[in-house]
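Recap from last week: sequence in, structure out.
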Amino acid sequence: MPGRSRASIVLRWFVVSRLAIYALGVIGVATFANVRFAEGVRDAQHTRAVVDNVSALNPQTVWHKWDALFYERIALKGYAVDPDDIRSQAAAGYFPLYPVVAGAVLKVAPSLGFFWTASLLSHLFTLAALLLLVTHLVSGAELAERVMAIMMTSAGSFYLSIPYAESLFLLLVVATIVATRRRHYELAGLLAGLSGTTRVHGWALIAVPAIACWLDATVPARSRLVRIIVTAALFALPLVAYFAYLGHVQGSWLAFLTRQQLWDNPSPYPFQAIAGLFEFPRRISSWVHGATWLVYVGLLFRYRRRLPLGEVLFCAGALLISTQQAGFQGIYRYMVPLVPLTLALAEDRHEMRYRMIAFNLVLGVLMLLAFVTENRLTV
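Predicted structure tokens:
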């Protein structure tokens, strides 16, 4: 299939889905009240009014909130700690690669501003990831259409176009899988390491090249061992650099972990979110996110024999890491970069695809409206 056709499929789905998302964002902030409570306040009387129609047309008003504010802080100020500013300490809970890239662009073109720079980068990273995906991991126009339909209608798809790290993480996941399938294991290890400085879920990505290399019968056993060691070393390189930098500016190599207490999560551990369902049974948002997590666990079980072992372990690791908070949070956006599940779902029977697309569309509209109105259901 000609490259132009593949590019046209990506561009059509990308443009149409982004326009729909932007329209929903404007409708959301102009129609529904902002229900985010003031810090330390749990009184509904503090609900804010809807945004006026003119302001709602400004993308920055709609989308520049939540984690984007911390990415902006890191892009402009790094991780330097101000003892009198708790937000500067809490910033260590965010990984650096995305805001560092945005900050580097801002140094060249400071007049652009963080929101517009980061949003442009997110669009470019997403387009690059999608083009790489349909060009190297998909065969045939029909399958490309299915993959794009699943990806662009996913509930967390809107994060791919705003100042969040999901777009860069998606690009690194796709690039790692492509490099691995081409047997460039060392390059895949480095890409996986970079993903680990973008989102914590990237730590599980090392399974993709490491397992593939170990099972590669075309490479002699001794050479396989050497290549795995080199792959692991390249994976660790960006992470060690990041930890060392944190140790220099925050006083601890593990500041990203110790600062979790500022996010009401002082002791992260696997399956903590499941325990939270029983500890806080009235948190409706946790049940919604937990049900979404369970759906994707079911998909992984369904497709476990169709996927390479390393890709199965990556998805399983990412799902496991998603449970290390006190409650299920943000699951719908953490599932977007699970590319192996997207590819497997695209090859499943149409009834299964339609059900997942319908599920994600309903959940996505709910979560998008919660995001733009700063309703805590989204986090």
